Amino acid sequence: MNTAHLLNSYLLKFAFAFLLLTACQNTAEMESLSGKAMVAEEPKAAQIADTGLNKQADYIRESSENPLEKPKRIKTAQIRIQTDSLSLLRDKIEVLMHRYDAYIHSEQLQNNDWDKRRMLQVKIPVQHFENFISDLQKTGDKITYLEVKSTDVTGDYYDVQARLKNKKALKERYLSLYQKAKNISDILSIERQINDIQTGIDQLQGKLKWLQHKTTYGTLSLELYQMSKRPQNKSVNRFWLAFQNGWQILVGFLYVLLSLWPFIFGIALLVWIWKRKRKIIKK
User: Fold this and answer.
1) Residue 104 and residue 54 share a domain
2) Can you state the percent helix, strand and coil of the chain, rounding each to 5?
3) What is the residue range of 41's domain?
């Protein structure tokens, strides 16, 4: 009995030790597998993060290298033309305006003894600006002055456009907050912010509209003049000029006398009183 009892006791201890050893091995294997999985997962996550960053960097690089639109330029020109017939040259310019979809923004006419002048400010689509000037030089009239300028405003144009877009998005966020605000102080604060943002939006819209017009139409300032016919006899011309100058001096002198009449009248009155007193004293 004692021998059987001892044998059973040894068997139980051996089985318990075997089960304990098996459990420790399984735990070690699970920890090892878990560690391997974590080690494998970390590079994968890092790879995904790196991929996302690379894509973002590529997008930013592509956006900075590739322009959103074509370059924006403001084109202006000043031309002075001498002609034998203002009306004929004006008709030629009218033909060019019709050909290139241009229009007159302003026009002035001056006449004097020496010449007749017509000042025009013409708005021309930028894609036809150079062609218009080139054809204008072929009219056969004498060009006495020519200046052409082109100013690059691409950066300003798209900067204003981006700032305007950001301002509008910011306004939308404040409007969303305004709908959720409940106390009076928050509502008033948000309203002030919205008003300030709207003021900035209006200013940017005005500037963008100005840039759009300036980069859509070039400005050509034209000065057309026709010399008046002068007398061929130089002595007669000089005599006429001297007579005109003398007449202008005489008229100017009369204007001065008229402006000084109170002083002249006062002096004459004092002289009359003085003479009258002398006569009374002598008597």
Assistant:
1) no
2) 70, 20, 10
3) 1-66
Which string of b and e fits 226-239 if b means at least 16 CB within 10 Å? Answer: beeeeeeeeeeeee
111 in the same domain as 15:
no
Indicate whether 56 and 128 sit together in one domain.
Answer: no
Could you report how far apart the first and last alpha carbons of the chain are, in Å? 191
Provide the number of structural domains found in the chain.
2
Is residue 112 classed as helix, strand or coil in its secondary structure? coil
Phi, psi of 150 (to 5 degrees): -140, 120
The answer to whether the beta carbons of residues 136 and 121 sit under 8 Å apart is no
Phi–psi pair at 100, nearest 5 degrees: -110, 20
Q: How many angstroms separate the CA atoms of 82 and 240, rounded? A: 26
Q: To which residue do tokens 């002198």 refer?
A: 253
pTM across the whole model: 0.54
Helices (H) and strands (E) in the chain, counts: 7, 5
The residues, any chain, with a CB within 8 Å of residue 205's CB and separated by 6 or more, are 164
Residue by residue, pLDDT tens for the chain (283 residues) are: 445 555 555 555 555 555 555 544 544 444 444 444 333 333 333 333 334 334 433 433 344 344 456 889 999 999 999 999 999 999 999 999 999 999 999 999 988 878 899 999 999 999 999 999 999 999 889 999 999 999 999 999 999 999 999 999 999 999 999 898 889 988 899 999 999 999 999 999 999 999 999 999 999 999 999 988 755 555 556 777 777 788 888 888 787 877 877 877 788 888 888 887 777 777 6
